[in-house]
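Review session, final week

We close the course with one last complete record, chosen because it touches almost every idea we covered. It is 2-oxoglutarate dehydrogenase, mitochondrial, a protein from Drosophila yakuba with 1239 residues. Go through it on your own first, then we will talk.
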Amino acid sequence: MNQCRLRSLVRVRRSLALGLRATDHHILARQALRTIQTTAQGRGVHDLDSFANGCSAAYIEGLYNKWKRNPKSVDESWNELFSGDDRTTAKRRPLPASHFRKYRRPPVERTAMKARSGARTASGGASAAPAAPPSDWKNIDDHHVIQAIIRAYQSRGHLAADLDPLGIVGPKKLKSVDGTHRHAAREVLRQHYSYIFNDLNTMFKLPSSTMIGGDQEFLTLKEILDRLERIYCGHIGVEYMQITSLTKTNWIRDRFEKPGGLDLTKEEKKLILERLTRSTGFENFLAKKFSSEKRFGLEGCDIMIPCIKEVVDRATKQGVESILIGMAHRGRLNVLANICRKPIADILSQFHGLKATDSGSGDVKYHLGVFQERLNRQTNRMVRITVVANPSHLEHVNPVLLGKARAEMFQRGDTCGSKVMPIIIHGDASFSGQGVVYESMHLSDLPSYTTYGTIHIVSNNQVGFTTDPRFSRSSRYCTDVAKVVNAPILHVNADDPEACIQCARIVTDYRTRFRKDVVIDIVGYRRNGHNEADEPMFTQPLMYQRIRKLKPCLQLYAEKLIKEGVVTDSEFKAMVSNYEKICEDAWTKSKAVKSIKYSSWIDSPWPGFFEGRDRLKLCPTGVSTDTLKTIGEMFSTPPPSEHKFEAHKGILRILAQRTQMVQDKVADWSLGEAFAFGSLLKEGIHVRLSGQDVERGTFSHRHHVLHHQKEDKVVYNSLDHLYPDQAPYSVCNSSLSECAVLGFEHGYSMASPHALVIWEGQFGDFCNTAQCIIDTFIASGETKWVRQSGVVMLLPHSMEGMGPEHSSGRMERFLQMSDDDPDVYPDTCDADFVARQLMSVNWIVTNLSTPANLFHCLRRQVNMGFRKPLINFSPKSLLRHPLARSPFKDFNECSSFQRLIPDKGPAGKKPEGVKKLVFCSGKVYYDLFKERDDHQQVETVALVRVEQLCPFPYDLISQQLELYPKAELLWAQEEHKNNGGWFYVQPRFDTALLKNENESRCISYRGRPPSSSPATGNKVQHYSEYKALIKSVFGELTPENKKRLEEQIKKQQAKAKADAQSKPSTKPPSTPPKGGSTPPPGKGGSGGKKRSDSSPSATIAPTGPQPRKPLISMPSRPPRGGKQRSGSAPAPDLVDEASAARNTEPDSPAHDGASPSAWKRSGSAPAPSLAPRASAPRSPSKAQTYRNPPSPAHDGAAPSTRQDSSEFIKRRPAKDSGSRSRTQKNPEESELDPTRPEH
């Protein structure tokens, strides 16, 4: 027997194992098996494994090809096999009845099984295995089959469940040998299907994997099948075998399989009928009174209301005190009336079109939220029920609800979800179609985002608007997305109220027991169209023909209970008439209502916050110097030695630099942020910072959470240890989601005004994927729903050559959504003008340029008498810019937030000589500041920073316009003309100018031209645009400017050579940090580990020590062997001589891996103080010295990815007077400003 014949035998046995008995294929397979066995036995072969001793792998194929040419040329048995003559085969070789049993093997298969790991004979053959021990193998195999059948029902029984009340989708009942109709077919039982047609009276011992027997250990096959059918193939389909926890699966199995576990008492059935009467009666009443109004009724899925009420009853009995409900529009009015007990008259008044007495735009009635605290009569306990307001974007309320629930847990000290429970009601199409569902599901088990189990209820209409499920999803069920978190899913027929109530009980108990998500899929239908004015027969004619003939669930259940004797017909009619009277009384009362208040529908009231508070009072935001020192010292100190915490060496260098800054009483961006957080924590304000990589910071500047270098999960957060009675500080890296996480933080901020909640984007334009949350919740939430929120969004933003997707935070979008009127000049003479302006706008938009202003801005969020969202376009390169520093005096009690920072230099002191008044915002100020010095225009050009863009600071702008009456007015921005703040500030500048009757000037634009892309990805184009911007503001460099710059270059080169010769050529690797000498304390940026491809290289500090390399002379272009980064421009076109000269200065302060120039950072614009290469003439043969590659900036990669011979130089600003204009001062122009370089 050759190998191919052995393969045929294997394939035949597989065919027999598939259960294809009594089919043509089975008979052919059996014949092939016997033919091969007969041939083998004829040759004296009795060990089937010895069939592999053949040598022709093409034996069967050769026989088949030979048979095709001449059927008589092969043996008769092969002719029968190849011809498929089943009638002849069946007649000649009838199959015994025993062969219809699964796992029954022919006798020859049991007699000669080879011992695969036994002793070898002397001839090298394998010794025969001992004969099988005597046993009832048939009985054992039968029990194995029974166990497999039970597992099949448990795993796949839901596929045959009767879930569709319309009967469109459902199992086909098949008649068994005893005449019983059963749902389970091949789809469920698979290869064991034929076994259920055997002797049904056979008794079997039940395995431990099932509980269908209760106290019985033995059941007949018929009873086993009947019980499994009732449990898994009835009106409930249970998906739970995907859960990997044996404890959870056993718990679910116990609840469903134990006999009598799903039975209800008469009183419970009567309560279900009463609640179903109210649910259906409310929809019928609205349909009668407002037949043409949109209300998005619940008809067809009325049982959802009793289900939710059962969840509320069960949860409050188990100790839950607050229940939060998030849902879309369908059924919302019914939930408000029957779950929250919102007065029906208030709901009906929304249909009358009444005028509101308070401000705001309001929303349609089926989007409104509510907050009710009432007595639950079933448990006699108080419960707070909140329905969160939701826009028409269906599932986007999910993360908002989860965040609000998490915040309530924090406020109540609920660390396991025992007092607060979220419920989310989904639609079938949206649950499977909207990605925010998946994002929200993945928050369920994250430590900083979990709500310890959410109950998901799907109102399954089996249609999405007008789209059938077969065209709206690829999965079998709309709930398959819940399997990603191993949530059990209970599908239930909406026309079986008792089954629905049992599912509601089980999911509530499951959530209480395991603190995990769980899903109920209530499969019903939609009796009307998408709304009551739609005609569904246009698109679903067959479905709605069935719906028109179908009795309502209430009528079906009432008939059932009347038949069972639970209620009488008169009792049922009394229930209906009583609720109709309640609705009629409410209708009469609603007609007396003459106006409405939006505030009566608020879903997040803050009791006690507004009472007795002066909303127009702006509390001071400064703190004492002692507080700053305490926070700064703790923030810059490594973990205590007793903790035996081993921190990264780069972290220790950063902490040392922070320590020096504290000693010098100066703060960079990270220290200013820490001052804000720490001072609020001291005052008892909870601070929560969330987002991607926020613990370290995208640009490696924050480092709030330190990680032990030798032990996993050992971290240290210094801001948690500032004061013994401080408020908690939560800093948490989020999942890679913007939409769900931002929605979560917005919901968190809704719960309490006594918290600073911050979401930081990894890059500013990452908010693109959260636009729905921004538009429909944050920007307009207060206007629509009278709901305040103080959430803070930090969006890294600046044009630094990082490409289209890592540059812009889309400032223009936020400014466009601001609701302040650009054509109305406010009353700036009002003493409370600033507070009134803040209170009247929908949010605050800032583009800050100093750490002190960030400090005051964050503290102002909490100190205001109201709450507004804050959108701050945080910097990237400014995080370590040597001029972006603030002295401690800018944080003290006498300081405050500066909406506008005027020019305090020579131009500000002599305004009559100023020719240009340039308004700007954010990081571009520092570029303009240096370029103004290079062009020697410090006395003729005034630079004014607008720190707060919205609301627009009309009063301060008017003061600046009056201060410079003869100056040309310019608005300079680094963004493109159709982006940034230009379109927002232009009409407001015009309004401010028109206020003055003697004013004839207008403001002009200076910046990049319009573009559909936020930024270019080409380095050459980036710098070309930058040069055009600078030229449009300051003009060309004069010959005197160029000469001065050339002299600076020569002096710097000479100094660099002298320093290089005076120092040894090599040093121990541990002496200087990588990138240059150790920076002077407090003067350089902080260090940190480099991170490539995620942040501008300018903001990343080198970590590893590296010996200083000797200065080398570099030609004007890279050498042939030098490797240049793709996407970078050729060095000769981009590098100016002054930059090259500054790169050679060894004593400059640390710039953390950035471009050596202290005035510019890698990825940002070229150093403004230096003449462009094209403008500065020099000899082509003149060599320049470089420490790093000639390209002035890199695009986010670590220095290790560049040329091996390159090294960044950490430098100090030149000490000689020639390096700077004698009339120039630092941006703040403070005489004792510690941020100013020493001379």
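Two points worth writing down before the exam:
The mean pLDDT is 79.
The two ends are 98 Å apart (CA to CA).
Good luck, everyone.
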